[in-house]
Specification:
By secondary structure, the chain is an alpha+beta fold. The chain is 43% helix and 11% strand. It is built from 21 helices and 11 strands. One of its GO terms (biological process) is plasma membrane tubulation.
């Protein structure tokens, strides 16, 4: 599912980068690129419009008007810049599209008030293609007063079916963004308000009903094409026709029996590391990450030409790595391009954009981990891993080359139904009854898995808190032991069985410790000196173990807690696949019904079903890998932690055995570094850092920094006014 950058309309005092980040990223829009200037593109579009004869109002009927305008409706809010001839429109406004195709993705538009200007092509839909329900009145003013939230999935398509099955509901305007990104998700639980299902937005419905131009040109019998055929399985004529369409091997996808995606490239790993703060004149401060791709391979050892030595040839593993620098907006570009080119697969959601506390150490580390998990989820997908935009993202090392080519990748039109036209699979690879049962089982499984993981995340948070309590208990035990051998009282220490006479002793009197610092009333007592120094070492060891418990809960267990987010919402992740699967089955039954048989539609339905079931298989494989990796990493961390604790305990235990025990009497006891803390023990601890909320979390966990909470206060006002949100936010 596509996750678009979100932001609400802000006052004029808001930086430009904050205002434009909420726009849907389309082929013209590279707002996340700090060097991108929308004004250059709009000026080009306006100049092009003037050069084609629009010297005055295009609606006035003067010479130069090419064709009548078409009615449309705005899908999103757009705050235009007057100096660049851009219009400001609101979701639901009625428009007249004077000229649709202008350079860089703009259109020439007239509002209901007669104002003419530029508007991005992806911000409106043609209303002549829809039928409005007779009992519903659609008024732009109504939408302005009561605005609906945006879908967090795909945008409403302009290329949805127009004649066979027109929707019977009124057009609902879409509104992208809010000031604080996770707030809407916390209220909606990651649900989409887009009334169009994934079956429509992915282009699957249009493919089933109409097919695709790519199919007609490149492969007339698409569904019957064997999946095990690659370049050799397609004749030279078909290959050349694909090349003419700009479709290479990266745009052809194969399904094996299963159904399961056929991987063209071996899996590899990606590391996101070494974050650093940078600054730009245009975009201000931002965080840059190093992204390193690790490719494993084999290298043959040199040998003689004899066949016997060739048979015994050993292969030694090698690894190739490539490192590039990327910022969060570059990941947004990658996600946007992948969503447009691969609408039929379930892409992982991109982490939410942050507006406050972006440079705190906790948040930067959490964002680094989220981006690493995101990009590894992409490269593990057998289809997404060879996408051209991903290769470009991971391999482009030159900043100039990035700026030059990124617009070309974003300008490639959305795949839509052509994605399914380029999926090749064995004929009759799916049985309708088996597909229906598999879809229902998959639905039930992902819902139950999500619920179980959510419970596991909550319990794991309690385990981390318990480790913090264990740290406090170990520290208190250490202080108590040190207080005993030094006869120094521990502040606020609970005591039992202490009488009034016991409290009347003179703590400054002789007999508590001798001159060597031993816990004894006798001078020069070597036995007590050895015992005292050994017990002091035990106390210091407990302090070290307390630090280890605290650090383990804050670092190693936090990594596992963060990693659980990646498997926490499988149903939300694959909801679009499930919807498409059910809709394709419904169309298939209609196409194969007696008296209404349509072999072409049925064949195209089989293609969609092959795609959705291959996605289910991908989830199955990744689930096994993810949970196996999570369990092994957790156990390895626990083993390492307890081995370190055990090593500390063994060292403390050896102090009581010969010959180390006798050596303790050689020198007087030196005061412990923790004695000064007896009057003010370190029994309190900072709250544990919690994972950043996941995109689909309905009740996100506490943010990773106080700065994030301060960001909430930016639009809620003083602390007293933020009590409503405080009730929504767990503490």
């Amino acid at each position: 599912m596509a996750t678009l950058p979100r932001a609400t309309k802000s006052p004029n005092t808001t930086p430009v980068s904050s205002r434009i980040i909420g726009r849907p990223v389309s082929e013209f829009d590279n707002s996340n690129n700090p060097e991108f200037d929308a004004g250059l593109n709009t000026s080009t579009a306006w100049t092009e419009h003037l050069e084609h004869g629009y010297t005055s109002d295009p609606g006035s009927g003067e010479e130069g008007e090419e064709k009548p305008s078409r009615p449309a409706r705005a899908l999103y809010d757009f705050e235009g810049k007057a100096e660049f001839r851009e219009l400001t429109v609101y979701a639901g406004d009625e428009l007249q599209i004077v000229r649709e195709e202008l350079p860089d993705g703009w259109s020439l538009v007239r509002t209901d008030s007669g104002e003419v200007g530029l508007l991005p092509r992806t911000y409106y839909t043609f209303t002549s293609d829809f039928t409005t329900a007779p009992d519903v009145s659609v008024s732009p003013s109504r939408f302005r007063s009561k605005r609906r939230e945006a879908s967090d999935h795909d945008r409403t398509p302009r290329g949805s079916p127009t004649s066979e099955h027109p929707p019977a509901l009124p057009i609902i305007p879409q509104h992208t963004g809010e000031w604080f990104p996770s707030f809407k998700q916390s209220l909606l639980g990651g649900k989409s308000l887009n009334r169009f299902s994934a079956f429509v937005t992915s282009g699957a419905e249009e493919w089933v009903l109409k097919g695709s131009e790519v199919e007609a040109i490149a492969q007339p019998h698409h569904a019957q094409f064997p999946s095990d055929a690659s370049d050799d399985g397609m004749d030279d004529g078909a290959s050349s026709r694909l090349s003419m369409l700009g479709l290479g091997e990266a745009d052809r996808h194969y399904v094996d029996a299963g159904p399961a995606w056929k991987a063209k490239l071996p899996a590899f790993r990606v590391l996101v590391h070494s974050p650093s703060k940078r600054a730009s004149v245009l975009s201000g401060a931002f965080t840059m990450y190093n992204v390193t791709s690790l490719f494993d391979g084999t290298r043959r050892q040199p040998s003689d030409e004899s066949e016997e030595e060739e048979d015994n040839e050993e292969a030694s593993p090698t690894s190739t790595r490539m490192t590039v620098s990327r910022r969060f907006s570059h990941f947004v570009i990658l996600h946007t391009a992948l969503s447009r080119r691969l609408p039929g697969i379930a892409l992982p959601p991109l982490p939410e954009k942050q507006y406050a506390g972006r440079f705190s150490d906790d948040f930067v580390e959490a964002r680094r981990g989220d981006l690493e998990r995101y990009i590894n989820k992409i490269v593990r997908h057998p289809i997404a891993r060879y996408a051209e935009i991903l290769t470009f993202f991971l391999g482009c090392e030159s900043d100039l080359e990035w700026k030059r080519l990124v617009n070309q990748h974003l300008s490639i039109p959305p795949a839509g139904p052509s994605f399914y036209a380029r999926v090749f699979h064995p004929a009759y690879n799916v049985d309708a009854e088996d597909a229906a049962e598999a879809g229902e089982r998959f639905d039930t499984h992902t819902r139950a898995a999500g619920k179980g993981v959510q419970a596991l995340r909550n319990i794991f948070g309690r385990v981390r808190e318990a480790r913090l309590e264990m740290s406090k208990a170990e520290r208190l035990l250490s202080y108590s032991l040190l207080s005993l051998i030094t006869s120094k009282p521990l502040a606020s220490a609970p005591t039992t069985g202490v009488t009034e006479e016991d409290e009347q002793y003179n703590a400054k009197g002789k007999g508590l410790m001798n001159a060597d610092g031993a816990w004894c009333w006798r001078e020069c007592c070597e036995e007590c000196l050895k015992l005292t120094k050994a017990m002091q070492k035990t106390s210091d060891t407990m302090q070290n173990i307390a630090d280890m418990y605290d650090g383990h809960a804050r670092r190693a267990q936090l990594e596992t807690h963060e990693a659980l987010k990646g498997v926490a919402h499988p149903y939300s992740h694959y909801e679009g696949v499930i919807q498409t699967h059910r809709s394709a089955l419904s169309r298939y039954h209609l196409a194969t019904a007696e008296g209404q048989a349509n072999d072409d539609v049925a064949a195209r339905c089989e293609t969609v079903l092959n795609t959705t079931m291959a996605e289910m298989d991908t989830y199955h494989q990744q689930k096994v890998e993810d949970f196996g990796s999570l369990a092994k990493d957790h156990l390895d961390g626990e083993i390492k932690f307890y081995e370190q604790v055990l090593h500390k305990l063994k060292n403390a235990r050896q102090a009581y055995d010969e010959p180390e025990y006798n050596e303790l009497a050689a020198t007087p006891r030196q005061p412990s570094m923790y004695e000064r803390e007896l009057e003010n023990p370190r029994l309190g601890a900072d709250p544990l850092t919690q994972p950043c909320p996941h995109v689909y979390d309905s009740a996100p966990m506490r943010p990773v920094s106080v700065a994030l909470q301060e960001g909430v206060g930016l639009f809620l006002g003083p602390a007293g006014r933020g009590s409503m949100l405080g009730k929504l936010w767990p503490t």
